[in-house]
Amino acid sequence: MSGNLMTNKQERFTLYQGQKQIGQRAYNLIIGATLLYGFAVNAFMITAFEGAFDHMNQWVFLIGYIVCVIIGAMLTRSDSPVVSFVGYNFIVVPLGVVLTMLLPYYGSQLVFDAVLVTGAITLVMMIAGSAFPNLFLSMGRTLAFTLLAVILVELVCVLILHRDFAIFDYAIVLIFSGYIGYDWAKANAYQRTVDNAIDSAVDLYMDIINIFIRILAIMSRND
Question: 71: buried, middle or exposed (CB in 10 Å: 19+, 13-18, 0-12)?
Fold first, then answer.
């Protein structure tokens, strides 16, 4: 198993020979610490590199972003916590670039409010995921197909109709809120290993960042 970068997610539910299970508290602490690390990197990039990416070629950025995220997604499927953490950074850094370019368009108070709302949604959905794990675990395919459909329709509206509808922001927030409950329920169903804790944090990080960006958009429309 070691070194296999294409480990199926279903294998996270099984403890293999050589893998060590850790306690629930340590498992949750690693998830939390990994999440905080990602947010800290993003905060540092926003502060240290403000304006640094403003003149970056859009196609260069888009291609680089896609390549980094694909590499990150592949690496986080490894059963090695070190490799998974490296993959996490391949996701955190390009999203940090996105936030560095995006946040200057919003006031500091708006950003702060969006952080609070995102934090509240995250807390509520994690509690819900703990309280109703079977319900959320059954929602995986529904969430995936719904997200894909919303993204495709949004792309059609933006690229072809040249329209940007607020309903898409609300839909994405709703879907990724469901994903937080789903990913947290999965995290608690996985074998408690260091690698699974990191992988779970990656999933939650993506959910939270997507909610934060859309909450910002919603608040800016209503400001």
Answer: middle
